[in-house]
Amino acid sequence: MDLVEVAAVLRKFSGADLTATLARIEASVKGVSADTCSAVLASAGADGQALGAAAALKRVAGQINVAIHAIGILLCLPHLLEAGEMVEYASLGAGNTGREFDLETNRRIAEFKFIHWRGGPESIRQNQLFKDFYLLSESPSPKRKYLYVLGTKHPLKFFNGGRALSSVLSRNHKLLKQFEGAHGEKFETVRDYFLAHKNLVEIEDVSGWVPELISDSDEEE
Description:
Blueprint: H1 3-14, H2 18-29, H3 37-44, H4 48-61, H5 64-80, E1 87-90, E2 103-105, E3 108-113, H6 123-138, E4 144-149, H7 153-159, H8 165-168, H9 173-183, H10 190-197, E5 202-205, H11 216-220
Parallel strand pairs: 3-4, 4-5
Antiparallel strand pairs: 1-2, 2-3
């Protein structure tokens, strides 16, 4: 099925409100027996086609973040490239595919984080953001270093916060070992490290370049 067919099949199953539809189905299956089960399932639209459509959409959804990352970087290029600046490589796929950063030009190295921050406990996103900042700041490259984000409010709040580096690095043993090898126990919190290195990396808001990634609620914050 193509995406149009997938959407049509799922819409048929879920109706206008999936939560309400599932509540109705839950009520309808109460008391179902082997003799009546097939009829109830048919009435609910719970069939192999619906399951196949959901599975197909899940496979597509798994590629959405990669597509957003790739297209987002490409749409930022016309805004960030200066006269005489040339792209040496852009790493658009999942991970950096053997390349150090998302983007390297003859003048800069850069990482992009198209994250919608909500200000709550976002430890995994924070961990990823710190990794990008750390690798940029520790790079021996003489080029300018940029960390491009959707809004700087939440990233800067995190970088100036007191979260323990032991927590931030706990799930990335390779990065933890690298960090300890470079700095030992010199820095205890994210803020400690950020204050000592913030002048090495420019943290820049690109939401104006990719407004399609910003919802109305984001703009009102």
